[in-house]
Task: inverse folding
């Protein structure tokens, strides 16, 4: 097999096994930067954040809409106390305040 | 074969890392080019791990195949349009001298220069057989060539190297 055993067939380059081992580690670390599970994890995290934001928006929406006047309230607020009293047949002094 | 990319990358680094580096280095000569090809090789091993089929033996052939392709890719970047890889032999032979350690053995430098004078396919077959001591079946799995043509490649490579060494007085 070793046809050239009678001459020096080693490589003339200076890189040591330790140096090459360091290079292999760097290559491995760089390859791991392309790790799909990490990207999927990032995506999951982003989806989670988006879902939480949507849920929060929904809760706040319901909360604020509950604070908003209904059409009836807005209509009554536009009337004078006398007009409201006429509609409900209340004494004028008992008219509740509509916001 | 466990197709977990992390495990495959780890196995490739632990079991074949050094051999892959020197296989690439013997083909591209320049350390900087070897580093580029190594980086691409490891990236491919990691990202294409799911395509690997078979046992530990095929992992070795698969890693060598990727490393060989990446080394050839680096060499292709050195060629001009319509230039074949074989036309780089003179340039690579000269590069052996500049890349060699100042205290390198002269016969070791000359031996590498003789290998650089071979055609690309002969050089791959010779290196894998002589330095990596792979069987012709393993080399066939890496290169996609028949065992018969690899034997022929190796035989002619040895003859050409002997001739070059004789001409250059070793």
Result:
């Amino acid at each position: 097999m070793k046809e050239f055993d009678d001459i020096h067939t080693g490589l003339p380059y200076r890189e040591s096994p330790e140096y090459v081992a360091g290079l292999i580690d760097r290559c491995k670390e760089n390859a791991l930067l392309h790790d799909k599970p990490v990207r999927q994890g990032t995506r999951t995290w982003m989806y989670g954040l988006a879902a939480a934001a949507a849920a929060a928006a929904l809760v706040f929406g319901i909360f604020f809409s509950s604070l908003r006047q209904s059409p009836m309230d807005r209509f009554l607020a536009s009337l004078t106390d006398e007009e409201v009293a006429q509609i409900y047949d209340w004494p004028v002094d008992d008219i509740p305040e509509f916001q | 074969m466990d197709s977990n990319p992390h495990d495959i990358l780890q196995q490739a680094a632990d079991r074949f890392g050094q051999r892959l580096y020197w296989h690439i280095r013997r083909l591209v000569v320049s350390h900087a080019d070897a580093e580029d090809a190594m980086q691409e090789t490891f990236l491919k091993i990691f990202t294409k791990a799911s395509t690997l089929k078979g046992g530990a033996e095929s992992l070795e052939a698969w890693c060598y195949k990727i490393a060989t392709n990446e080394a050839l890719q680096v060499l292709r970047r050195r060629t001009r349009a319509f230039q074949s890889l074989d036309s780089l032999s003179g340039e690579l032979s000269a590069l052996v001298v500049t890349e060699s350690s100042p205290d390198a053995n002269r016969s070791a430098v000359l031996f590498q220069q003789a290998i650089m004078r071979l055609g690309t396919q002969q050089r791959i077959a010779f290196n894998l057989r002589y330095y990596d001591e792979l069987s012709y079946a393993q080399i066939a799995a890496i290169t996609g060539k028949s065992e018969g043509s690899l034997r022929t490649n190796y035989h002619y490579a040895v003859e050409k190297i002997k001739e070059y060494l004789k001409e250059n007085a070793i």
